[in-house]
Amino acid sequence: MSVCGCIGPANVNVRILNEDYDTIDFDTVVDIVGISIMSMNAPRAYEISAGFRRRGVPVIAGGFHATLAPDEVLEHFDAVCVGDCEKVVVRMIEDLREGRLRGIYSDEVPDLGALPQLNRKLGRGGRCSTLTPFRRPEGARTSVSSAP
């Protein structure tokens, strides 16, 4: 599980965790948690969200599953980003600061040439990828996504 790879306003400190490598500290002091969800890890994303929300931390979601099933995801999160987060996450953070985080956020299809580059230095060891090495029972299938 990893948080959204896009960056919000310049005055926001971002830390990227990947549960395959990092331990999630539910007692860490944060203003907000963002989780990128693929359908295969939605149940775990819902558990993580519940853990932070019980402690009063707002949790936002994005990713493929959030885009495909925003109403379902909203049952477990304070807000959901539908589609690309590059512009939407700024609005979400502004709304959080104003105490009015609202349901589902979406944006027009962005001009891909104008999007900011992913800051891969935020990930562990200066790398950020959802390609995760792990052992599966022989013959088991899994989905893998990665960015160069």
Feature tags:
4 helices; alpha/beta; disordered N terminus; 148 residues; 10% strand
Task: Draw up the topology in text.
Layout: E1 33-36, H1 42-53, E2 59-62, H2 64-68, H3 70-74, E3 79-82, H4 88-97, E4 104-106
Report what the structure shows.
There is one protein chain. By secondary structure, this protein is an alpha/beta fold. It has one domain (1-108): 3-Layer(aba) Sandwich (Rossmann fold), CATH 3.40.50. It is 22% helix and 10% strand. It contains 4 helices and 4 strands. The protein has helices spanning 42-53, 64-68, 70-74, 88-97; strands spanning 33-36, 59-62, 79-82, 104-106. It has a 4-stranded parallel sheet, with helices on both faces. Helix 4 links the parallel strand 3 (79-82) and strand 4 (104-106). The longest helix is centred in the first third of the chain and has 12 residues, at 42-53. It is globular.
